[in-house]
Amino acid sequence: MSIIITGANGKLGTLIIKHLLEKVPANQIIACVRHPEKAFEYLARGIEVRYCDYDQPESLAEAFVGASKLLLISSSNNNDTIRVRQHAHVIEAAKKAKVEHILFTSFAFLGMGNISPSHLYLATEHAILTSGIPYTFLRNALYTDFVGVLGLNEAITKGELVTYPGNWLFNTVTRNDLASGIAAVLSSPDHTNKTYELTAPRSWSFEELAMILSELAGKPVSYRQDPQVQNWIYGFLNKIDTSSTALDLEILIGGPVATLKESIRPFITP
Ligand SMILES: NC(=O)c1ccc[n+]([C@@H]2O[C@H](COP(=O)([O-])OP(=O)(O)OC[C@H]3O[C@@H](n4cnc5c(N)ncnc54)[C@H](OP(=O)(O)O)[C@@H]3O)[C@@H](O)[C@H]2O)c1
Q1: I need a surface site. Which of 5, 30, 191, 218 has the fewest CB within 10 A?
Q2: From ligand 1's centre to the CA of 211, what distance in Å?
Q3: CB 235 within 8 A of CB 162
Q4: Per-residue pLDDT reduced to its tens digit, 203-218
Q5: Residue with the nearest Cα to atom 12 of ligand 1?
Q6: What stretch of H or E contains 3?
Q7: Residue 24 phi, psi (nearest 5)
Q8: Tens digits of per-residue pLDDT, 178-231?
Q9: One of this protein's Pfam families, by short name (predicted)?
């Protein structure tokens, strides 16, 4: 069995391979990367490294030869027209290389959000469905990392977390929990033609975030909404479904996802 992973030098790919190594021998994993010279740690651990660039279709069919499972980690390009083309290159190459099963890191609760970021993922899922290759859609929640742009340390200093008004609820999870769930799917049978919503099982609010900031800082942090707050993140959050929850991730991991307190600790300056 060969499990081939694209985007393997990225943050999610690195964590997926770390979890996968706990479940399958290194010689069953193939890391596909755009910069093989940065993948020396994989080689040192006995993982085969192959060159693959989503913009170079000829590199892809070669890189995917022999794949029992191919994990397409969605491209990080910030132009969605380019990303749609890149994902199409991967799917076409998977077909050419006779990949037995394609898995895709999609986005949670597509179709329930206010769409634009969802279009890319829906288009990619559609292309995979129509390719006829057995598939698994791993619909990732928003990473909890997004809290990094909310000014948490500033909120602690001021004793007040201020956000744009709204009935905000978040189903976010850490990359590490996503990677653990995805590694579980990659290393076990019976996931063919299934879609998993990889979110937290319970959503959290900005009020809860302020309470946790108080606990972590050891001083009160209150919460207030203010229409004067200017931050690009609220426009983005308004376009996706951040509130729906599912149990899929905890079932795959076989335990609870990281708590909000654990997840935001890395964003707090001691
Ligand atoms: N759920 C969320 O909240 C969320 C947030 C941000 C992003 N995402 C999506 O999730 C994906 C994985 O997240 P991440 O944290 O691992 O992102 P990341 O650290 O930026 O990793 C993205 C990976 O994609 C690779 N890549 C980009 N363009 C490529 C190309 N043309 N050909 C081959 N590989 C290419 C990059 O290669 P290099 O190492 O060579 O640059 C990198 O390894 C992102 O790419 C993005 O689509 C999700």
Answers
A1: 218
A2: 32
A3: no
A4: 999 999 999 999 999 9
A5: 12
A6: strand 3-5
A7: -135, 155
A8: 999 999 999 999 999 999 999 999 999 999 999 999 999 999 999 999 999 999
A9: NAD_binding_10
